[in-house]
Fold this protein.
Amino acid sequence: MPAIRRVPPQGYSEQVDALAAVLADVVAHGASVGFRNPFGPGEAAAWWRTREPAVRDGTLNVWIAEDSGGVAGTVSLAFEPKPNGRHRAEVLKLMVHSRARGLGLGRALLGTAERAAAGAGATLLLLDTATGSPAERLYETAGWTRYGIVPDYAADPSGTLEDCSFFYKRLS
């Protein structure tokens, strides 16, 4: 299993290219994570750079999983800054590079985010994913509860509209 570690704010910019490679790979393989083709490492790096202020102020935590080939996966956890929502956080951009799929890395990354959220005092986690995707099956088997499906919520990388499933998980 690749080693998972949190990217510290002071080292975030050094990880942008590796994070971009994972994002570009998952989009190239059809993952509906917010981007449309054509999409490559340059666009992916630009997007990750926009996340740096949130990483620096602590409202966004990013983890990477590294194997012998480099960064094999990532997950992010966004903390709610509004006072009435500080008990919740959102799991974002859980992505596993195509070379590392099927090894349990997605489940390990999800567990890392869940433990970090609980450690930070969050009692409720939220996320969304394409309905019928492998990620949806992961969340269902990891104890998450689907609370709704929105039809035609977002376009996949090819531009086809897909339904989106919304999940929550209570942390004890």
Q: What stands out?
A: The radius of gyration is 15 Å. The chain has one domain: 3-127. Strands lie at 3-6, 60-67, 70-79, 88-96, 124-130, 145-155, 161-170.
